[in-house]
């Protein structure tokens, strides 16, 4: 993550406040600070582990309780009406007057309200409203994202109202996402689930089993990314869907790649995919797309080319693929 260059003054002040609050320095120092901040947040959460069922779901519930964050979920308009009744009418929290309009505005994932009329020990001093009207996919992630704001930022600096959107690329939000990614799959409880997976080529059968056991409400992509990052072999994840070539005729569609995460070992091995490149017809990911059946096969990345014929570096890889809706999820492991 960048140092102060290209960061707004407001973000720089927030980063400094996080560094000071967590006791890891006086000023934001880029990547080094990020590592220390993540570590400090993991340690804070470790203090809550006594008697905890070792799952992501149990951890999020306990952390929310400890940090006085109450999660509310909106799936339909009636849910907004009942939240207005509960907080606007019942608890005189005027901020909730904007709830309906906010939920209906584009790209809103979640809204955070710091209650004005709360007592210091109220369990709902912070209310995080998750927008599940379109998809529930990001709910697990958003819970950890909101809690990571509470873990990392001094309470008095947290904005009394915040809108979380899917398109926010602010440097603080990226940092909070990084923290969320680590805390949601906290090594102390998550590591045992993936002990046998780390050294074998990844398959969706194994990943789905981990997801069901550790965090059934997390999206498959979130669990896949978490596992890829922690594997002891070069690995990357991707999503593919039918898309036209960039700037090409819109009716000519192909199964095209959207790269997701890749681990440091993949970076060191020069294993990568290029955005929008095609899934070759010989790949099991293509067969999964046609048949809907999950598959795993040994492949050569030399077969994976871009429209201009550019190939990626040659590796013998295990590809595993699964279809969800009209999207293919894939993993490549060397
Ligand atoms: Zn946020």
- With strands numbered from the N-terminus, the spatial order across the biggest sheet is 6-5-9-8-7
Count up the domains.
Answer: 2
- The tally of strands reads 9
**What is the N-to-C order of secondary-structure elements (H for helix, E for strand)?**
HHHEHHEEHEHHHHEEHHEEE
Percentage of residues in helical conformation: 25-40%
What overall form do the CA principal axes indicate?
A: globular
Record keyword descriptors for this entry.
2 domains, four-stranded mixed beta sheet, 12 helices, 20% strand, binds zinc ion
Describe how the helices and strands are arranged:
Elements: H1 9-21, H2 31-46, H3 56-66, E1 69-74, H4 77-89, H5 99-104, E2 108-114, E3 126-131, H6 139-152, E4 161-165, H7 171-183, H8 187-194, H9 204-214, H10 220-230, E5 235-244, E6 253-262, H11 264-268, H12 284-291, E7 295-300, E8 316-324, E9 327-333
Parallel strand pairs: 1-3
Antiparallel strand pairs: 2-3, 2-4, 5-6, 5-9, 7-8, 8-9
This protein binds zinc ion (ZN).
The site of zinc ion (ZN) has 5 residues, from helix 6 and helix 7.
